[in-house]
């Protein structure tokens, strides 16, 4: 690339990276707000999350168009192309996380009309906080091209999976104890699973960073932490047959 | 593009399109097998689904590399670039659908050890069949660049969402009736939700086709059919407090 074209390319790339960071900021806020809305019973905040998803989707579309334009006009090769394609993938991950936050916010109003499940709301919020901090770090790792920080994010996803497993068991127990808890627990379980999936998408972003810097794809079958699909022991401690 | 470069480009594109169709075939099979394994209590078939996900993931990686190589070497512009980027997106969707099928297969062995929920397995299989046929049509629509067929797929996703809503209500009722059903219903509900999400990814593929042909992105907020997040009436008919 000539000096001149290279500098236009750099400017384009900086522009689209700035947009990714803006999108990341909105998604972080959405994760935080969606779990806070549930814990503080704040329907207005839930509505704010639903609204912000529109802006997130628009940013993804813009980033997609800009990266396509960069590829078409600048024809970046090898390393440069890898950066552009990573940005495209990261924006898809961010969009999905935003969708999960929106789905959680949609459920909030329904849940607020039901039996309260003690402790579940704050447990969900702790889980969401961990995912949010992982997202922050994965985007920092991207900007700084820091594979060590990215690997740290990947490792922390196991904690999120463990929090999810604990909540799953808890919900089963609550439902067994009193069938009146069933509907609320089904909705809460959705939210827990959504949060766990957000963690998976954050992990994908961190994996992109590692691929970008080292050229290696981390092994996909990293110790997956959601044990509920394979562990038959995940059933409540004592099936109290007749409800409460 | 010169005649010579154009024909190399066409050959490259045909190669990667052929790979997408191969990947699509494997994913269709995985959808079918994962629900069949549950209905026919076939653990070997479930294992086959888990194995085939490895091949699906490898194909996605290959397609990603090939499309990146095409972009880098041929520098396609405008319409051609749109095709290449669509292929990249479609392969991501297929990979996610394959993941959902694998997750369902993982749950099969656990479920086979639990109380049978009458009718649920065949209802799930009907849902999976509809998603599989939608996937077939969306890939046909892609190859034939047929936006009418693609729109038809998008419309049919509403049926899948309705099947999911019906199952969700059914699971709630089963759990209320007898707490011994709770654990099995939680797992079955996962599978129903996974199938519904597969439908969403198939819809994304169909939307890609429409974008590719017409340049328009169909409105994302198409009448979403999963009503369980917003409809407070989705609770079982009569909470029979004390279990059965």
From TrEMBL, chains A, B:
Residues 220-229 have a biased composition (Basic and acidic residues). GO terms for cellular component: cytoplasm. It is found in: Cytoplasm. Residues 20-108, 124-209 form the PhoU domain. Residues 218-244 are annotated as: Disordered. Homodimer. Belongs to the PhoU family. This is Phosphate-specific transport system accessory protein PhoU. The gene is phoU.
């Amino acid at each position: 690339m000539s000096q001149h074209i290279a500098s236009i390319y750099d400017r384009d790339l900086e522009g689209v990276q700035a947009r990714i960071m803006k999108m990341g900021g909105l998604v972080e806020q959405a994760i935080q707000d969606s779990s806070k809305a549930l814990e503080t019973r704040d329907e207005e905040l839930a509505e704010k999350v639903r609204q912000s998803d529109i802006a997130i989707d628009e940013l993804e579309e813009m980033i997609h168009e800009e990266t396509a334009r960069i590829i078409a006009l600048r024809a970046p090769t090898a390393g440069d192309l890898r950066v552009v394609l990573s940005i495209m993938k990261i924006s898809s991950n961010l969009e999905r996380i935003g969708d999960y936050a929106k789905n959680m916010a949609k459920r909030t109003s329904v849940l607020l009309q039901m039996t309260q499940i003690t402790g579940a709301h704050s447990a969900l919020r702790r889980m969401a906080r961990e995912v949010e901090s992982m997202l922050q770090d994965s985007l920092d790792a991207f900007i700084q091209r820091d594979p060590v920080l990215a690997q740290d994010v990947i490792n922390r996803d196991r904690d999120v999976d463990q929090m999810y497993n604990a909540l799953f068991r808890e919900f089963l127990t609550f439902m067994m104890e009193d069938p009146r808890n069933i509907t609320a627990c089904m909705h809460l379980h959705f939210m827990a699973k959504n949060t766990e999936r957000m963690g998976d998408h954050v992990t994908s972003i961190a994996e992109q960073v590692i691929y970008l810097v080292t050229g290696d794809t981390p092994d996909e079958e990293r110790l997956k932490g959601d044990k509920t699909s394979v562990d038959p022991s995940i059933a409540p401690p004592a099936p109290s047959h007749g409800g409460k």
